Amino acid sequence: MNILLIDDDEAIRMMLQDIIEDYNLGEVVASLPSAAELTNSLLALHHVDILIIDMLMPGIDGIAAVSQIKKDFAGKIIMLSQVESKDLVGKAYEQGVNYYITKPLNRNEIVSIIRNVSEHLRLESFAQNLQSSLASLTPQAMAAPAPAPSPAQKGTAMLQELGIANAPGAQDLLDIINYLTRHPGMNPSLKQLFTNVASERPATSDAAREAKAMEQRLRRTIYQAHVHLATLGAVDYTNPRFEEYAPIYFDYSDIRNTMRLIENDEKPSLSQVHINTKKFIFALYDAITR
């Protein structure tokens, strides 16, 4: 992935570049102290896939700069800011920003989001290439139906929609869905389900211990999905992803409580959220297998 950095703070740009290089997240093709030079021509020249830009800078601010290039920019935009104002965050999303990171920057959050964005871009590229390939087929070839996506492909896409494609428990969720798909009609206890899935992993020597670790990873991952959807709802209550997924995967009262915290510029914590792991897993299973 080709990444362009724009921030008037050189220390921030150097920190981002170090993280990107340390975790092999892509190549920083340019690092600018101002958005004054940001144009679609510049983005095209460097073949930029991901633009990481600060919100508040001297001269032209990040939101104004994004509004000028977004229409003709096919990549993804990550905005940085010390501001947590709901109105400004909403304005940033309205202008085409895909993700929003609050300063001070957190290394793990940066890595997770850039990986998430990169995966999204790869999926989009795959879909576009597939569409182009289908369009080039003869009418006779096109008569053959395209193969349905596998549960693994649908699962990865769904985790992407929920903002947890690169979360610690993402692979656990995919393995659980795979297990349930191979054993239709089962409704085991979570402990038994986790133990069964863990025991199928070749490297597992202690299934009970791995099941316990899996449970903790899943709680953190489901919490991440909860906060992701609550943030979408706090910014825009009519967001299609929020409207579709929030009531399926979580209790409305829990989501609403987290939204209030976000609206009041407070950060929710895992201890404040009721995580119904079984509801989440079987809602995900139904969404993938239907």
Automatic annotation (TrEMBL):
Pfam families reported in the protein's UniProt record: Response_reg (PF00072), YcbB (PF08664)
Domain of life the protein comes from: Bacteria
Residue stretches making up the Response regulatory domain: 2-118
GO biological process, one term: phosphorelay signal transduction system
Cited Gene3D superfamilies: 3.40.50.2300
PANTHER family: TRANSCRIPTIONAL REGULATORY PROTEIN GLNL, TWO-COMPONENT RESPONSE REGULATOR
Protein name as it appears in the record: Two-component system, response regulator YcbB
Native species: Selenomonas ruminantium
